[in-house]
Amino acid sequence: MKIMIAKGYILVIALVLGLAACSDMYQHEKYIEDGERTYTGKADSVKVHSGENRVLIEGLLISDPKITGAKISWNAGRDSITVPIERTSGIDTLQIYIEDLEEKVYNFEIVTHDEQGNTSVPVNISGEVYGEKYQASLLNRPVKNKELYAGNLNTTVEFGSMDLSSGVFATQIRYTDSNGQMQTKIVPVDSSDVKLPNYKIGDEFEYRTMFLPEPTSIDTFYTEYEADIPQVTYLKNYSVPFEASSTSGRWGILADWTTNDAIRIHDDHGGWDEWNSNIFNVESGWGAPGITNGKIYQTVTLSPGTYTFKANLRNGNDTSNEGEGDYAYLVVAEGDILPDVDDGAIENDAATIGYSRILQSKDPEDFKVEFTINQQQEVSVGYATTQPGGNVSEQYPGTSNGRHCNIMSFEFFKHGE
């Protein structure tokens, strides 16, 4: 009886197994009813690069040399393109541009195929297209300061900060140099300023800001060009506290000015004085030697126009007198040096454009030179002197025992600016 039960179980199990086998065969036949399906190799490492009303779809074709084309569809399959592919024996790169797209986010499907019509498993990827809306949101990088130094014709343009999430990465700036040539510079967004060398005085520069909506975008967006004109600076280091390029005790050499050897009578220094808040001072006497044809000046390039060069003196100066060998001048002259100061030289030198004698008896408001330039040219402006030293009162009775000229500041400007 136990055996029969065992046989009974065996028969039941066999019957169940038989039915399962028939079921599998049925399912298999169902799937191969139309023949076994063959798939082509799919595109690998697919990426979408955004652009202006277009995209670039890139990918790799690593396997299946039988691939002959690819179909890219979007808008739920309502739009598509098919491109031919010529495979090589190695790894090929797929690069497909899709143009004339509206500004929005797209879902793309990429399917490859062979000559027999076999297709790959679809590859889906999304990407964004940018256009007028994005363009309208872009702002030009603000200019904080723009200064043209007439001493070397360098213009320095300083920029404000930007919201980096906008995709900004640089500013393009263009200008005309003094030779009439157009120059262009690219200023990265992480740079706060740029120098424009050899700038043409009186001309505008133009600038626009550059954006990539995504780091891998294939198109750069630009703001419209804006025009601006730099503010011309004619002097550097022109007021208290004056800066010194080197010092020796109380005395120094003025930074950004040319100081000739005749001025340097204090341990090879002179013109800068730490007394009175680091002031401009040319001093002789009180035991120090005299100065002959001493000059302190800056050389600049000027455009046509009328200018004023003025010195603002501190009270209590012992400046020059009417006596021979006792001269001090504000001078404007052609070229890159001031004329000598020998008796009558300043007044009669052909290079002299204008001058003003500095005298103790003179109204301080008259320590200025007004002059007109008819063409762009290089000029030098500054202080020139021949003055006594040693015990000055012995040479010039009734005067102090030395000479000094404390200048608080200089002014140099073009009329009408």
TrEMBL record:
Pfam families recorded: DUF4998, DUF5013
Domain DUF5013: residue ranges: 236-382
Top-level lineage group: Bacteria
Protein name: DUF5013 domain-containing protein
Naturally occurring in which organism (per UniProt): Fodinibius salsisoli
Origin organism lineage: Bacteria, Pseudomonadati, Balneolota, Balneolia, Balneolales
